[in-house]
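Entry:
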Amino acid sequence: MAFAFARVAALLLVFAMTVPGSLSSEPDSAAARQIMPCRSFVETGKTVCNRFLLYWENNGGLPQQGYPVSGEFREQSDVDGKTYTVQYFERAVFELHSENKPLYDVLLSLLGRFEYNRRYYREGVPGPEQKASTDNPLFFGKTGRTIGGSFRAYWEQHGGLPQQGYPITDEFSEKSEIDGKTYRVQYFERAVFELHSENKAPYNVLLSHVGLLRLKAKYAGREPGAPSPTAAADPYATLRARPLKLPVLAPGQPCPKAAGRIVSPSFGPALGNGPVYPVGFGTAGVFDLAGAQEEGGWLYAKVLWVAAPSFRGPVLVRGRRLDASGDLRFERGPDPVAELTLHTNAHPPDAAGWIDWPSYTRLRGPGCYAYQVDAPDFTLMIPFEMR
Protein backbone atom coordinates (compact mmCIF):
# COMPACT_ATOMS: atom_id res chain seq x y z
CA MET A 1 0.00 0.00 0.00
CA ALA A 2 2.86 2.41 0.88
CA PHE A 3 4.55 1.59 -2.43
CA ALA A 4 1.34 2.30 -4.36
CA PHE A 5 0.86 5.59 -2.52
CA ALA A 6 4.44 6.64 -3.24
CA ARG A 7 4.02 5.76 -6.91
CA VAL A 8 0.86 7.87 -7.18
CA ALA A 9 2.58 10.75 -5.40
CA ALA A 10 5.48 10.52 -7.84
CA LEU A 11 3.11 10.61 -10.78
CA LEU A 12 1.36 13.66 -9.37
CA LEU A 13 4.74 15.36 -8.94
CA VAL A 14 5.59 14.64 -12.57
CA PHE A 15 2.19 16.01 -13.54
CA ALA A 16 2.77 19.22 -11.57
CA MET A 17 6.20 19.70 -13.15
CA THR A 18 5.18 19.00 -16.74
CA VAL A 19 1.66 20.39 -17.20
CA PRO A 20 1.85 24.03 -18.28
CA GLY A 21 -0.28 26.71 -16.73
CA SER A 22 -2.13 27.34 -19.98
CA LEU A 23 -2.63 25.54 -23.27
CA SER A 24 -0.84 28.27 -25.18
CA SER A 25 2.53 27.21 -23.66
CA GLU A 26 2.07 23.47 -24.16
CA PRO A 27 4.96 21.74 -25.98
CA ASP A 28 4.05 20.20 -29.32
CA SER A 29 5.58 16.75 -28.92
CA ALA A 30 4.57 13.12 -28.85
CA ALA A 31 6.01 12.86 -25.33
CA ALA A 32 3.66 15.58 -24.07
CA ARG A 33 0.74 13.50 -25.30
CA GLN A 34 1.82 10.46 -23.26
CA ILE A 35 2.85 11.76 -19.81
CA MET A 36 -0.56 12.96 -18.63
CA PRO A 37 -1.77 10.76 -15.73
CA CYS A 38 -5.38 9.91 -15.00
CA ARG A 39 -7.80 11.32 -12.47
CA SER A 40 -10.73 9.36 -11.08
CA PHE A 41 -13.93 11.02 -9.87
CA VAL A 42 -15.68 9.22 -7.03
CA GLU A 43 -18.79 11.34 -7.71
CA THR A 44 -19.49 9.46 -10.96
CA GLY A 45 -17.04 6.55 -10.84
CA LYS A 46 -15.41 7.68 -14.10
CA THR A 47 -11.78 8.41 -14.96
CA VAL A 48 -10.29 11.08 -17.23
CA CYS A 49 -6.82 10.63 -18.74
CA ASN A 50 -4.12 12.17 -20.90
CA ARG A 51 -5.26 14.76 -23.45
CA PHE A 52 -8.82 14.87 -22.16
CA LEU A 53 -7.62 15.50 -18.61
CA LEU A 54 -5.29 18.26 -19.78
CA TYR A 55 -8.11 19.92 -21.70
CA TRP A 56 -10.49 19.59 -18.72
CA GLU A 57 -7.94 21.12 -16.34
CA ASN A 58 -7.07 24.03 -18.64
CA ASN A 59 -10.56 24.89 -19.86
CA GLY A 60 -12.71 25.56 -16.84
CA GLY A 61 -12.65 22.19 -15.10
CA LEU A 62 -15.71 21.31 -13.06
CA PRO A 63 -17.73 24.56 -13.45
CA GLN A 64 -17.33 24.62 -17.24
CA GLN A 65 -17.22 20.93 -18.22
CA GLY A 66 -18.82 19.14 -15.27
CA TYR A 67 -17.99 15.66 -13.99
CA PRO A 68 -17.22 12.86 -16.48
CA VAL A 69 -20.30 10.70 -17.03
CA SER A 70 -18.70 8.11 -19.33
CA GLY A 71 -15.33 6.61 -20.05
CA GLU A 72 -13.55 6.99 -23.37
CA PHE A 73 -15.07 5.16 -26.32
CA ARG A 74 -15.28 5.34 -30.10
CA GLU A 75 -18.29 7.13 -31.58
CA GLN A 76 -19.36 8.14 -35.08
CA SER A 77 -19.83 11.89 -35.37
CA ASP A 78 -23.27 13.16 -36.35
CA VAL A 79 -21.57 16.15 -37.99
CA ASP A 80 -19.04 14.66 -40.42
CA GLY A 81 -19.75 10.91 -40.19
CA LYS A 82 -16.20 10.10 -39.03
CA THR A 83 -15.38 8.04 -35.93
CA TYR A 84 -13.51 9.64 -33.02
CA THR A 85 -12.48 8.76 -29.48
CA VAL A 86 -14.87 10.69 -27.24
CA GLN A 87 -15.73 11.16 -23.58
CA TYR A 88 -18.95 12.58 -22.18
CA PHE A 89 -19.05 15.12 -19.37
CA GLU A 90 -22.09 16.68 -17.72
CA ARG A 91 -21.78 19.85 -19.79
CA ALA A 92 -19.68 18.81 -22.79
CA VAL A 93 -18.46 16.01 -25.03
CA PHE A 94 -14.73 15.89 -25.82
CA GLU A 95 -13.59 14.59 -29.22
CA LEU A 96 -9.97 13.56 -29.83
CA HIS A 97 -8.77 14.73 -33.24
CA SER A 98 -5.35 13.13 -33.43
CA GLU A 99 -4.89 14.55 -36.92
CA ASN A 100 -4.53 18.00 -35.31
CA LYS A 101 -1.62 19.36 -33.29
CA PRO A 102 -2.01 20.11 -29.56
CA LEU A 103 -4.20 23.09 -28.78
CA TYR A 104 -6.57 21.79 -31.44
CA ASP A 105 -6.53 18.02 -30.97
CA VAL A 106 -9.38 18.09 -28.41
CA LEU A 107 -12.54 19.66 -29.81
CA LEU A 108 -16.02 19.98 -28.34
CA SER A 109 -19.16 18.48 -29.89
CA LEU A 110 -21.94 20.84 -30.98
CA LEU A 111 -24.08 19.96 -27.97
CA GLY A 112 -26.08 23.17 -27.95
CA ARG A 113 -27.18 22.63 -31.53
CA PHE A 114 -27.97 18.94 -30.92
CA GLU A 115 -30.02 19.76 -27.82
CA TYR A 116 -31.97 22.54 -29.56
CA ASN A 117 -32.80 20.20 -32.45
CA ARG A 118 -33.90 17.48 -30.03
CA ARG A 119 -36.22 19.77 -28.07
CA TYR A 120 -37.55 22.18 -30.68
CA TYR A 121 -36.77 21.10 -34.27
CA ARG A 122 -40.22 19.77 -35.21
CA GLU A 123 -42.10 20.29 -38.45
CA GLY A 124 -45.27 22.30 -37.85
CA VAL A 125 -44.36 23.10 -34.23
CA PRO A 126 -43.30 26.71 -33.51
CA GLY A 127 -40.04 27.15 -31.66
CA PRO A 128 -39.76 29.03 -28.39
CA GLU A 129 -40.56 32.75 -28.36
CA GLN A 130 -37.20 34.54 -28.18
CA LYS A 131 -36.06 38.07 -27.43
CA ALA A 132 -32.69 39.61 -28.25
CA SER A 133 -30.91 41.18 -25.28
CA THR A 134 -30.67 44.97 -25.19
CA ASP A 135 -28.23 45.00 -22.24
CA ASN A 136 -24.78 45.74 -23.72
CA PRO A 137 -25.70 43.74 -26.83
CA LEU A 138 -23.25 42.05 -29.19
CA PHE A 139 -24.74 40.94 -32.53
CA PHE A 140 -23.38 38.00 -34.55
CA GLY A 141 -24.09 38.31 -38.26
CA LYS A 142 -23.11 34.68 -38.86
CA THR A 143 -26.15 33.39 -36.94
CA GLY A 144 -28.28 36.54 -36.67
CA ARG A 145 -28.33 36.31 -32.86
CA THR A 146 -27.40 38.70 -30.04
CA ILE A 147 -25.79 38.17 -26.64
CA GLY A 148 -25.88 40.68 -23.81
CA GLY A 149 -25.95 41.26 -20.08
CA SER A 150 -24.79 38.40 -17.86
CA PHE A 151 -24.73 35.95 -20.79
CA ARG A 152 -22.34 38.15 -22.76
CA ALA A 153 -20.09 38.57 -19.72
CA TYR A 154 -19.99 34.82 -19.15
CA TRP A 155 -19.34 34.08 -22.84
CA GLU A 156 -16.43 36.54 -22.98
CA GLN A 157 -14.91 35.38 -19.68
CA HIS A 158 -15.25 31.63 -20.29
CA GLY A 159 -13.62 30.80 -23.59
CA GLY A 160 -15.78 32.75 -26.03
CA LEU A 161 -16.06 31.30 -29.51
CA PRO A 162 -13.73 28.27 -29.16
CA GLN A 163 -15.38 27.05 -25.96
CA GLN A 164 -19.02 28.12 -26.35
CA GLY A 165 -19.45 28.63 -30.10
CA TYR A 166 -21.75 31.14 -31.79
CA PRO A 167 -25.17 31.90 -30.30
CA ILE A 168 -27.86 29.99 -32.21
CA THR A 169 -30.85 31.52 -30.39
CA ASP A 170 -31.71 34.69 -28.55
CA GLU A 171 -32.86 34.51 -24.93
CA PHE A 172 -36.06 32.70 -23.90
CA SER A 173 -37.60 30.88 -20.93
CA GLU A 174 -37.27 27.09 -20.70
CA LYS A 175 -38.22 24.39 -18.22
CA SER A 176 -35.16 22.39 -17.19
CA GLU A 177 -35.23 18.63 -17.77
CA ILE A 178 -32.80 18.27 -14.85
CA ASP A 179 -34.65 19.97 -11.95
CA GLY A 180 -38.03 20.89 -13.50
CA LYS A 181 -37.56 24.63 -12.84
CA THR A 182 -37.92 27.38 -15.46
CA TYR A 183 -34.89 29.53 -16.30
CA ARG A 184 -33.94 32.24 -18.75
CA VAL A 185 -31.67 30.47 -21.26
CA GLN A 186 -29.71 31.04 -24.44
CA TYR A 187 -28.40 28.32 -26.75
CA PHE A 188 -24.91 28.35 -28.21
CA GLU A 189 -23.36 25.85 -30.60
CA ARG A 190 -21.55 24.01 -27.80
CA ALA A 191 -23.45 24.97 -24.64
CA VAL A 192 -26.68 26.25 -23.13
CA PHE A 193 -26.50 29.15 -20.65
CA GLU A 194 -28.98 29.31 -17.74
CA LEU A 195 -29.61 32.48 -15.73
CA HIS A 196 -29.90 31.69 -12.02
CA SER A 197 -31.03 35.02 -10.59
CA GLU A 198 -31.12 33.48 -7.11
CA ASN A 199 -27.30 33.33 -7.17
CA LYS A 200 -24.86 36.20 -6.93
CA ALA A 201 -22.35 36.84 -9.71
CA PRO A 202 -20.25 35.10 -10.92
CA TYR A 203 -22.51 32.11 -10.17
CA ASN A 204 -25.69 33.58 -11.67
CA VAL A 205 -24.90 32.02 -15.07
CA LEU A 206 -24.61 28.23 -15.07
CA LEU A 207 -24.36 25.76 -17.94
CA SER A 208 -27.09 23.22 -18.64
CA HIS A 209 -26.16 19.54 -18.36
CA VAL A 210 -26.39 19.06 -22.12
CA GLY A 211 -23.68 16.39 -22.13
CA LEU A 212 -25.63 14.27 -19.64
CA LEU A 213 -28.88 14.79 -21.57
CA ARG A 214 -27.17 13.85 -24.83
CA LEU A 215 -25.75 10.70 -23.25
CA LYS A 216 -29.19 9.62 -22.02
CA ALA A 217 -30.84 10.41 -25.35
CA LYS A 218 -28.29 8.45 -27.39
CA TYR A 219 -27.62 5.48 -25.11
CA ALA A 220 -30.70 5.20 -22.88
CA GLY A 221 -28.89 3.71 -19.90
CA ARG A 222 -26.64 1.45 -21.98
CA GLU A 223 -22.90 1.75 -21.36
CA PRO A 224 -21.44 3.81 -24.24
CA GLY A 225 -19.09 1.83 -26.40
CA ALA A 226 -20.82 -1.46 -25.67
CA PRO A 227 -22.72 -2.84 -28.66
CA SER A 228 -26.46 -2.47 -28.50
CA PRO A 229 -28.32 -5.80 -28.60
CA THR A 230 -30.26 -4.57 -31.63
CA ALA A 231 -27.92 -2.04 -33.24
CA ALA A 232 -25.81 -4.49 -35.23
CA ALA A 233 -28.82 -6.32 -36.63
CA ASP A 234 -31.16 -3.36 -36.99
CA PRO A 235 -29.99 0.27 -36.57
CA TYR A 236 -33.62 1.37 -36.94
CA ALA A 237 -34.98 -0.58 -33.95
CA THR A 238 -34.97 2.41 -31.61
CA LEU A 239 -36.59 4.64 -34.23
CA ARG A 240 -39.20 2.01 -35.04
CA ALA A 241 -40.19 1.87 -31.37
CA ARG A 242 -41.39 5.47 -31.53
CA PRO A 243 -45.16 5.69 -32.09
CA LEU A 244 -46.68 7.63 -34.96
CA LYS A 245 -47.64 11.02 -33.56
CA LEU A 246 -49.55 12.34 -36.55
CA PRO A 247 -52.73 14.37 -35.97
CA VAL A 248 -56.27 13.41 -37.00
CA LEU A 249 -58.19 15.94 -39.08
CA ALA A 250 -61.96 16.26 -39.22
CA PRO A 251 -63.52 15.73 -42.67
CA GLY A 252 -63.35 18.96 -44.64
CA GLN A 253 -60.67 20.47 -42.42
CA PRO A 254 -57.95 22.17 -44.48
CA CYS A 255 -54.82 20.13 -45.01
CA PRO A 256 -51.82 21.81 -43.28
CA LYS A 257 -49.52 21.26 -46.26
CA ALA A 258 -45.82 21.90 -45.75
CA ALA A 259 -44.39 24.60 -47.99
CA GLY A 260 -41.76 23.75 -50.57
CA ARG A 261 -38.52 25.66 -51.09
CA ILE A 262 -35.12 25.21 -52.69
CA VAL A 263 -32.66 23.98 -50.06
CA SER A 264 -29.90 23.05 -52.52
CA PRO A 265 -29.39 23.97 -56.18
CA SER A 266 -28.94 20.24 -56.85
CA PHE A 267 -32.66 19.52 -56.23
CA GLY A 268 -36.12 20.88 -56.84
CA PRO A 269 -38.32 22.34 -54.07
CA ALA A 270 -38.12 20.33 -50.82
CA LEU A 271 -40.86 20.13 -48.18
CA GLY A 272 -40.43 20.99 -44.51
CA ASN A 273 -37.71 22.45 -42.32
CA GLY A 274 -35.24 19.58 -42.58
CA PRO A 275 -32.55 18.49 -42.15
CA VAL A 276 -34.16 15.58 -44.07
CA TYR A 277 -36.59 16.52 -46.85
CA PRO A 278 -38.84 14.94 -49.51
CA VAL A 279 -38.55 16.41 -53.03
CA GLY A 280 -41.19 16.10 -55.77
CA PHE A 281 -44.17 18.14 -54.50
CA GLY A 282 -43.40 21.52 -56.05
CA THR A 283 -43.83 24.50 -53.75
CA ALA A 284 -47.48 23.82 -52.84
CA GLY A 285 -47.01 20.51 -51.03
CA VAL A 286 -49.28 18.63 -53.48
CA PHE A 287 -48.89 15.05 -54.77
CA ASP A 288 -50.46 15.25 -58.23
CA LEU A 289 -52.49 12.17 -59.22
CA ALA A 290 -52.08 13.14 -62.86
CA GLY A 291 -48.46 12.03 -62.68
CA ALA A 292 -49.02 8.89 -60.61
CA GLN A 293 -48.89 5.28 -61.81
CA GLU A 294 -50.88 2.30 -60.49
CA GLU A 295 -49.88 -1.17 -59.32
CA GLY A 296 -51.96 -3.58 -57.25
CA GLY A 297 -54.49 -0.87 -56.39
CA TRP A 298 -51.76 1.46 -55.15
CA LEU A 299 -50.98 4.77 -56.83
CA TYR A 300 -47.32 5.67 -56.81
CA ALA A 301 -45.03 8.48 -57.88
CA LYS A 302 -41.36 9.24 -57.49
CA VAL A 303 -40.28 11.08 -54.33
CA LEU A 304 -36.63 11.97 -53.80
CA TRP A 305 -35.39 12.15 -50.21
CA VAL A 306 -32.42 14.41 -49.44
CA ALA A 307 -30.37 15.07 -46.30
CA ALA A 308 -28.45 18.26 -45.47
CA PRO A 309 -24.66 18.07 -44.94
CA SER A 310 -25.19 18.67 -41.21
CA PHE A 311 -27.05 15.36 -40.82
CA ARG A 312 -25.50 11.91 -40.67
CA GLY A 313 -27.10 8.69 -39.53
CA PRO A 314 -30.19 6.50 -39.97
CA VAL A 315 -33.62 7.79 -41.01
CA LEU A 316 -36.96 6.00 -40.69
CA VAL A 317 -39.93 7.35 -42.73
CA ARG A 318 -43.52 6.25 -42.09
CA GLY A 319 -46.90 7.90 -42.53
CA ARG A 320 -50.67 7.72 -42.94
CA ARG A 321 -53.70 9.68 -44.07
CA LEU A 322 -54.82 12.44 -41.67
CA ASP A 323 -58.41 13.23 -42.75
CA ALA A 324 -59.67 9.61 -43.01
CA SER A 325 -58.37 6.07 -42.71
CA GLY A 326 -55.73 5.30 -45.28
CA ASP A 327 -52.23 3.88 -45.55
CA LEU A 328 -49.06 5.44 -46.87
CA ARG A 329 -46.42 3.03 -48.14
CA PHE A 330 -43.22 2.98 -50.16
CA GLU A 331 -41.33 1.55 -53.13
CA ARG A 332 -42.64 -0.86 -55.79
CA GLY A 333 -44.46 -4.19 -55.68
CA PRO A 334 -48.03 -5.45 -55.13
CA ASP A 335 -47.57 -5.38 -51.33
CA PRO A 336 -45.47 -2.26 -50.68
CA VAL A 337 -43.53 -1.80 -47.44
CA ALA A 338 -44.93 0.39 -44.65
CA GLU A 339 -41.63 2.10 -43.85
CA LEU A 340 -38.68 3.59 -45.68
CA THR A 341 -35.23 3.04 -44.17
CA LEU A 342 -32.46 5.41 -45.24
CA HIS A 343 -28.90 5.78 -43.97
CA THR A 344 -26.26 8.34 -44.90
CA ASN A 345 -23.54 5.68 -44.69
CA ALA A 346 -25.01 3.94 -47.71
CA HIS A 347 -24.69 6.83 -50.18
CA PRO A 348 -21.76 9.12 -51.00
CA PRO A 349 -22.48 12.87 -50.64
CA ASP A 350 -22.36 15.28 -53.54
CA ALA A 351 -19.77 18.05 -53.80
CA ALA A 352 -21.74 20.21 -51.35
CA GLY A 353 -22.20 17.39 -48.82
CA TRP A 354 -25.86 16.57 -49.58
CA ILE A 355 -27.06 12.95 -49.79
CA ASP A 356 -30.10 11.78 -51.77
CA TRP A 357 -32.18 8.61 -52.08
CA PRO A 358 -34.63 8.06 -54.98
CA SER A 359 -37.82 6.31 -53.84
CA TYR A 360 -41.55 5.88 -54.45
CA THR A 361 -44.46 6.87 -52.22
CA ARG A 362 -47.57 4.64 -52.46
CA LEU A 363 -51.15 5.78 -51.73
CA ARG A 364 -54.66 4.50 -52.53
CA GLY A 365 -56.56 7.72 -53.04
CA PRO A 366 -56.76 11.50 -52.67
CA GLY A 367 -56.69 13.18 -49.28
CA CYS A 368 -54.41 14.79 -46.70
CA TYR A 369 -51.39 12.69 -45.73
CA ALA A 370 -48.23 13.15 -43.68
CA TYR A 371 -44.81 11.61 -43.36
CA GLN A 372 -43.26 11.10 -39.94
CA VAL A 373 -39.49 11.25 -40.24
CA ASP A 374 -37.55 9.83 -37.30
CA ALA A 375 -33.80 10.16 -36.71
CA PRO A 376 -31.80 9.73 -33.51
CA ASP A 377 -32.11 13.43 -32.59
CA PHE A 378 -35.46 14.52 -33.99
CA THR A 379 -38.93 13.65 -35.26
CA LEU A 380 -40.44 15.59 -38.15
CA MET A 381 -44.01 15.74 -39.45
CA ILE A 382 -44.31 16.66 -43.14
CA PRO A 383 -47.95 16.94 -44.31
CA PHE A 384 -48.97 17.06 -47.98
CA GLU A 385 -52.09 16.72 -50.10
CA MET A 386 -52.86 14.14 -52.75
CA ARG A 387 -55.23 15.38 -55.44
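The longest helix spans residues 2-18.
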